[in-house]
Specification:
The complex is a heterodimer of chains A (446) and B (219). Chain A is built from ten helices and 13 strands. Chain A has helices at residues 4-53, 135-171, 173-184, 200-250, 256-281, 284-289, 296-306, 308-313, 332-349, 408-418, and strands spanning 63-65, 71-77, 82-86, 104-110, 113-122, 127-134, 292-295, 317-322, 327-330, 355-363, 366-373, 422-427, 434-441. Chain A has a six-stranded mixed sheet with strand order 1-3-2-6-5-4. In chain B, strand 11 (207-209) and strand 12 form a beta hairpin. In chain B, 43% of the residues lie in helices and 21% in strands. In chain B, strands 2-1-3-4-5 form a five-stranded parallel sheet, sandwiched between helices. In chain B, strands 6-7-8-9 form a four-stranded antiparallel sheet. A three-stranded antiparallel sheet of chain B has the order 10-12-11. Chain B has two domains: 2-118, Response regulator (Rossmann fold); 153-215, Winged helix-like DNA-binding domain superfamily/Winged helix DNA-binding domain (Arc Repressor Mutant, subunit A, Orthogonal Bundle). Chain A binds chain B through residues 232, 235-236, 238-244, 246-247, 250, 270, 273, 281, 298, 300-302, 304-306, 308-309, 318-323, 332-333, 336, 358, and chain B through 9, 11-12, 15-16, 18-19, 22, 80, 83-84, 101-107, 167-173, 209-213, 215.
Chain lengths: 446, 219
């Protein structure tokens, strides 16, 4: 069933049509019979009238009367000779060859038509009076009368269809409202569905849906809270590990090589925790509350300044082009995380002495941020997948033991979505590596 | 340099003390905020490293009390709270710097060295990097022993870069150090000052990171 409304309309119209048709058929037959009865009565009284009005007729002065072509009369003597007639009935309709003539109604053929005739035997004057009427005209008349009464009913069906369509529409309004509310929900909006005057049929549906949304929301909050708490609690222990590692590195009796796996393990653990935290920190509710106009260029500058150690260690060249004030309506912390992840990725995957170029500029549709590097880039097939959580190009066989956990770009994507921006990956024709382009709309978030 | 470490996590504190001692700092360690206040009142340390999550009173309270005691005692806040609000709040309350856990020890040391240089350039009026020496008391700058003339702005710019040696200074942060709020700053002012400074300093002493800012490498 494609639509309840269409189904109900079609079903109701079909039923109405069928019932109307049956009753019309019945009515038509009854009406036609009644009309025939009336016409017959008329024929009969006409015969009586003619008989009374022409008492003194004699066969010798047989006269004619002008009548319309659809009716006729004849007055015949006992020997079936014409005493009087209408002008359209020239020959006597009764003769001695006929079966014994009796009074009453009869259907006969005459002058090319079928006629309904009434034969009246005037016993006093001993003569026959015949009145006739063309059968087809009678039917046309009868039909006209009946049709006149049927037409309004037939015409009423489309009007009924229209009214039913509207009535069903009104009846289904709560359902439409519910559908609309569910459809307009953002994927991450788990607030309950609110309806005034919920009809009986929908109360259970609405209640169940809301209970489901509530449970889902609770689960989400618990998951977020758990991840955030766990990660938060791990910060101090990781700090201890890092400081102790540093102390060991200062110890001349321990070789640097022995500490390397320890160092990379701690580094990696720290990274995962930070990434998990920033993934859950940027929930839409939070981001939307704490938004303001933020200069993207200033963020790029401060992030590069902050992370310059990493870039300097790899002797990479980094620069910011454009750099004019690029205001984006958004969340400062989220945008910092976004820029930090992209720049740190670029530096990580670009070899020593490589180049990273950041551009921030105004374009007609808003603000554009470009980050390109001279690294190996990402194969085209992986462009979509790199945004998935814990996905890494080439999986665990990721070359050169670069630290990472596959959350960075998932976070980037998440923040980009929050700001209604668009991210595209490309091949950098200028530097040969990856080119990340993020377009922020003029009124991101609002 | 006398460092007061206020940190309630014993394991972290012990590890940190070892690192700090290795770097040549003298370290005292306290686990509670109230003790720390008393200690600062009796003897002023050179630098305070403060963890915000303390068992007795909140770290921000301690920070406020420290500021009442001494306006220019450098305080580096160490914390697991790293939202922007926490950061802004901490700096507003008078922290000189802010480091989120888990941190790199190298980063911590670099920041402590900035404090150290700042202290030395104001107290002992001397700070040298390579063959450039800056004397904040007499506003003298010398390159391989020969004095050079700098305008007031150029001097402040060089001082900011040298005190923060090894860390990139963005154009914006330099502007805010040179000019007070509301003062009109042309977009290329810093570039012009740097251009003049470079002529008087050894080649490559101030490096440009295009679009971002400038850096003086620590020796």
């Amino acid at each position: 069933m494609k639509s309840i409304r269409t189904y109900l309309l079609l079903a109701l119209i079909a039923i109405i049509t069928l019932v109307t048709f049956l009753s019309l058929l019945q009515g038509y037959q009854a009406s036609i019979a009644k009309a025939q009865q009336l016409f017959d009565d008329r024929l009969q009284s006409m015969a009586a009238m003619i008989s009374n009005a022409n008492q003194d007729l004699h066969p010798h002065n047989a006269g004619t009367e002008k009548l319309s072509s659809t009716v006729f009369f004849q007055i015949l003597a006992d020997d079936f000779s014409l005493l009087a007639r209408s002008n359209n009935a020239t020959t006597p309709l009764l003769s001695v060859d006929n079966d014994p003539v009796i009074s009453g109604f009869k259907d006969i053929n005459f002058s090319g038509y079928r006629w309904r005739v009434y034969i009246l035997k005037d016993d006093i004057l001993n003569r026959w009076i015949i009145t006739g009427e063309r059968s087809d005209i009678r039917y046309i008349l009868a039909e006209n009368v009946v049709t006149e009464s049927i037409i309004p009913i037939v015409l009423a069906i489309p009007i009924a269809a229209f009214i039913i369509w509207i009535a069903i529409g009104v009846g289904l309004k709560p359902l439409r409202e519910l559908t609309g509310q569910l459809r307009n929900k953002q994927a991450d909006d788990l607030s309950p569905v609110l309806m005034n005057n919920t009809p009986e049929e929908l109360t259970t549906l609405v209640a169940t849906t809301n209970a489901l949304l509530q449970r889902l929301n609770d689960a989400f909050v618990r998951e977020q809270q758990f991840a955030a708490d766990a990660a938060h609690e791990l910060r101090t222990p990781i700090s201890i590990l890092k400081v102790q590692l540093h102390n060991l590195q200062n110890n001349e009796h321990i070789s640097e090589a022995a500490l390397l796996p320890l160092a990379s393990g701690i580094e990696r653990m720290g990274l995962v925790i930070e990434q998990i935290l920033s993934l859950y920190r940027h929930s839409p509710e939070q981001a939307l509350v704490k938004q303001s106009d933020i200069d993207l260029s200033a963020i790029v500058q401060s992030i590069i300044a902050k992370d310059y150690d990493q870039i300097a260690t790899k002797q990479q060249k980094i620069s910011l082009s454009g750099g004019e004030k690029c205001l984006v309506a958004g969340n400062q912390f989220a945008l910092e995380t976004l820029v930090q992840n992209l720049i740190s990725n670029a530096s990580k995957y670009t070899p020593n002495q490589g180049e990273i170029q950041v551009t921030s500029k105004h374009i007609t549709s808003g603000i554009r941020l470009i980050i390109e590097d001279s690294g190996p880039g990402i194969p085209k097939e992986a462009y979509e997948r790199v945004f998935e959580r814990f996905y890494r190009v080439d999986g665990d066989r990721h070359d050169s033991g670069i630290l990472g956990c596959g959350l960075g770009l998932a976070i980037v994507k998440h923040i980009v979505n929050l700001h209604r921006a668009k991210i595209t990956l490309n091949h950098s024709t200028q530097l040969g590596g990856l080119k990340v382009v993020i377009d922020f709309p003029k009124n991101s978030m609002r | 340099m006398q460092v007061l470490l206020i940190e309630d996590d014993i394991a972290l504190a012990e590890a940190l003390m070892q690192s700090l001692k290795y770097e040549g700092f003298a370290v005292n360690h306290l686990t509670q905020g109230k003790q720390a206040i008393t200690s600062i009142k009796t003897e002023l340390p050179d630098i305070v490293i403060l963890d915000l999550g303390l068992p007795d009173i909140d770290g921000t309270e301690v920070l406020k009390l420290i500021r009442q005691e001494s306006a220019d005692l450098p305080v580096l806040v160490l914390t697991a709270r790293i939202t922007l609000e926490d950061k802004v709040n901490g700096l507003d309350l008078g922290a000189d710097d802010y480091l989120a856990k888990p941190f790199e020890v190298a980063e911590l040391m670099a920041r402590l060295r900035v404090f150290e240089r700042r202290a030395s350039s104001s107290k002992h009026s001397g700070l040298s990097i390579g063959n450039v020496r800056i004397d904040s008391a007499s506003h003298q700058v010398s390159v391989t022993g020969e004095n050079i003339d700098l305008s007031r702005r150029e001097f402040m710019l060089l001082k900011a870069l040298m005190e923060n040696a090894g860390r990139v200074q963005t154009r914006y942060s330099l502007e805010s150090k040179l000019y007070s709020w509301g003062e009109e700053v042309a977009s290329n002012t810093i570039e012009v000052h740097i251009h003049h400074l470079r002529k008087k300093l050894p080649d490559n002493f101030i490096q440009t990171i295009r679009g971002i800012g400038y850096i003086v490498q620590s020796a």
